[in-house]
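The record is passed on directly below:
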Amino acid sequence: MERISVTQAARQFSDLLNRVFYQGIVVELERGNKAIAQISPVTSESSVKVKDLNRFFNELPLLGDDADDFAKDLADIRKQIPLEKNQWEQN
């Protein structure tokens, strides 16, 4: 991962964005030898369209005979782990 100063990024912003987009690089921006931000390409869109979801799910492999045990294990794990609080929601 490349690391450049905020000043350098500002001076070469257009070039930097082109490199991120076309070359897929990730760049850390630093100020005072400390990373303060990161510029990275946007993740690509999913190749699965909504209209194709039913076919997609039907083509997934079936769970074996242990599917019920797996579901029970997941439920037990969820009971043991407290839910994370959403910092944006008020109580």
Remarks:
- The two ends are 40 Å apart (CA to CA).
